Each structure stands twice: as structure tokens, then as C-alpha cells.
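Request from the bench team (R.T.):
"We need a structural guess for the complex before ordering more NDP. Sequence and SMILES attached. Just send the C-alpha cells back."

Command: build protein-NDP structure.
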Amino acid sequence: MQRIGIIGVGEIGRAIVTGLHHEGRAASEVFLSPRGARPAAELSAQYEDVEVCADNQEVADRSEIVILAMRREHRHEALARVHVGSDKVVVNLRAGVGNDDLRQVLGTDAPLVRAIPLPTIRERRSVTVVYPSHPDVDAFFERLGGALPVADEDSFNVLSALTGTLTTHYAYLDTLTAWAADHGIAPNDADRYVRGLFQGVGRSLGDKNRSLDQLAADHETPNGNNERVRGTWFDAANAKALTNVLDGLLADLSPPKSR
Ligand SMILES: NC(=O)C1=CN([C@@H]2O[C@H](COP(=O)(O)OP(=O)(O)OC[C@H]3O[C@@H](n4cnc5c(N)ncnc54)[C@H](OP(=O)(O)O)[C@@H]3O)[C@@H](O)[C@H]2O)C=CC1
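Reply to R.T.: structure attached below.
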């Protein structure tokens, strides 16, 4: 039985608890902060091994792995009076909060690990980037779809910046759907078709034997429609705009010393 604490039960905290129970109960006891109250209450009603604590200190006291899943701006308020013993491991999910910063806020000698779980962790499908590698934390995320330890915090920030592209992908699909609807396709049909098209793309990504370049080439007929869209819309200027915004994200995520 691993004792897992989660301080900040919002979107990602809920996804982690759901993932721990996906397709059978995980060998864990879970201790939740009283905030957010509603998802915490729902999860404890749903799973018998999930308990809501009286305060954040109780979460830290009762857990071996303490996951910090509140938003960046709430870290001081959430952790100001919380003492975390050096026998615990703290897992920090907050984008842009480095381990040095967190150690100052927490004032603990406990090992600190940064992690980027994705919403698909709820189905144990998220490969979670971690830094630094820690055997207990790596094993925890392995159970939830996979752990990807990286060598240093700069590498962690690069992958963290990539995570920021996720909702653009959904917005892109929404734009395609709206375009089809504008051209007379029933919105439900457009939605169904676009989802099916890109679920197929998702499945192709599971084929590790083909590089991303190769997958693009395999789906493209010379002078065909795919080549036309890629070459005229996702042109060099568009690709450059994308890398520019990623550079900006990375600069904001990196602590000043490494800029
Ligand atoms: N969503 C995602 O896909 C990912 C998010 N992250 C990171 O995880 C963190 C949480 O994100 P997300 O789940 O989306 O955010 P949410 O806003 O959904 O959840 C944050 C939770 O923190 C709670 N909270 C606020 N103040 C406190 C406090 N003082 N003590 C305890 N809990 C508190 C909030 O409770 P209340 O509702 O009561 O205010 C809320 O339930 C962020 O830092 C984000 O960068 C990392 C990877 C992926």
C-alpha cells in the first residue's frame, strides 16, 4: 500500500485519483486536501480508499508521496504553514515552479520531484515527465501509464513548453469542424468525421516503427491535397511562428539563472 497525498484537488488531481482506480483498484491509500471541496467529496464517496483530510498539513502527515496540484499562484497560501518531513517525497506539478523556489516555500529537506502528468493519466495513458528521477515517484507514474525521467530542469522545461500546445490542437480540430459546418455539413456529422479522422491519426502515432516524418510522407500523395494544405498553410512562416511562441514559453518557464 502506497500512501498518496494530493494537495489541490482540481482537474489534474482528480485525473490522478481516477487513474489510480482505472481498471481495478490500485494498491494505494489516497489523502486529499479539503480544497477543491466538491471533487474531493465526490472521489471519497466513489472510492473507499480515498479520504478527505481536515487540512493540508494532515495530507502531508499521512502520505509518503505528497503531490502538489494547486495552481502556481496558490502555492504560498496552500503551503505557508505546512511542514513536510524529510521522510516524504514531494511531487510538484505546478508549471513554472522550480525545485529551488519550492524548497524555499516549503523549507523541507524532503526530496522534491517535478512532474507533468497529462489529463489522460485518468486512463493510465499519460507518459509523465519527471525530474529528477526518484525510484518511488518513477514507479508511481509507471503504474499510471509511464514515467519519462529527464536529465536536468532545463530539459524538463522544454517538455513542459510542449505541453502548452495541447489546447491549440483541439482548437485546430474545432476550426476544421466549423469550416465544414459553414459549408453545409450538419454540425454533428462534421464533429463525428473530424473526431474519427484524428483518432486514426492518434492510433498511427502508436506505431513506433515509423518516424513522424515518415508518417507524414506515408499519408501524402505527391501534389495531392495533404501536400497542398501542409505546404501552403503550415509553411515556413507558420512553423517559425510556432517555434517562436515555444521559445517564449521556455524563457518564461526557465529560472533567471539559466536564461
Ligand atoms: N490540468 C492539467 O492538465 C495539468 C495541470 N498541471 C498543473 O497542476 C496544477 C493544477 O492544475 P489544474 O488541476 O488544472 O487546476 P485546477 O484549478 O483545476 O485545480 C486546482 C485546485 O487547487 C485547489 N486549491 C486552491 N488553493 C488551495 C489551497 N490553499 N490548498 C489546497 N488546494 C487549493 C483548488 O481548490 P478550489 O476549487 O477550492 O479553489 C483547485 O481544486 C497547476 O499548477 C498546473 O500547472 C500540470 C500538468 C497538467
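Two things stood out. The pocket of NDP is lined by residues 7-13, 33, 35-37, 56, 69-72, 74, 77-78, 93-95, 116-119 (CB under 6 Å). The mean pLDDT is 94.
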